[in-house]
Fold this sequence. Notes:
single chain; alpha/beta; N-(1-d-carboxylethyl)-l-norvaline Dehydrogenase, domain 2; 3 domains; seven-stranded mixed β-sheet; two-stranded antiparallel sheet; elongated; binds ribulose-5-phosphate
Amino acid sequence: MQIGMIGLGRMGGNMAERLRRGGHEVVGYDRDPALSDVGSLKDLVERLQAPRAVWVMVPAGAPTRATVEQLRDLLSEGDVVIDGGNSHYLDDQRHAADLGTRGIGFVDVGVSGGVWGLQNGYALMVGGEDEHVGRLMPAFDTLKPEGEDGFVHAGGVGAGHFAKMVHNGIEYGMMQSFAEGWELLEASDVVTNVPDTFRSWRHGTVIQSWLLDLLVRALREDPDLADLKGYAEDSGEGRWTVQAAVDHAVPLPAITAALYARFASRQADSPAMKMVAALRNQFGGHAVASAEGQTARGADSPGADVAPPPEADR
Ligand SMILES: O=C(CO)[C@H](O)[C@H](O)COP(=O)(O)O
């Protein structure tokens, strides 16, 4: 089929390539003229035959919103817009309503597979009406991995991105779990061959997984991760998962802890733990470390000046 692809970066560019290899005609647009087949969104729309299918693969939030708004004014009744970025499911519902006023369809697709997708295929989680999803099946069939799995029409508009959001929340929890296990193995001197221990778990264990394969690969490249700083960003889906859990009063302790661990990783020092240290020192005269790393005051330190708590609080 013919498909317009907007955003030809790491994900969009590789997806366009996989579609082309599968025999589809892809007209690509990117702000970078070196990557683009056309000079503007208007040119892209003019190059496509109606009814058009235009796949948006730009960062979630304002860039996606701006692109969908422009497409609303350029496309015609019967065309369909696909958002394959990591958008919030509530944005999908707004976009579908907005495009729907012009008779333009909307399908949201959560895409997983990262930089390996070109070769292995992309897992696709799709939300939208049957009519629109059905029309796009030839493209989905090419993009997805070979075999039965790797594709779901999860529900109406928003369901694809909601499924991808929860997938990413699970990803957070799994990564954190592997990371904590690795830290503990390294911290003790009981297991002396940590990389091989992880490698052995790749087969026959209950935790075998692609993430485990990638962990083994990372340790092969840098056995102590000495080249990395313990700092992890987040792109928003973990936060949205936790926010959705609060909205539905669903307890997500593991995923929430994994998200908070990333926030903690960005602090050179912890203001909250300074306060914990200060309070321990206040009520019990317990030792604290100074900002320079020296024990500054403590129960046994000269100069400890701790007012005794009221009788009732002891
Ligand atoms: O969708 C993905 C994998 O499934 C992305 O790699 C993911 O969005 C990365 O998220 P974060 O930056 O929050 O770790």
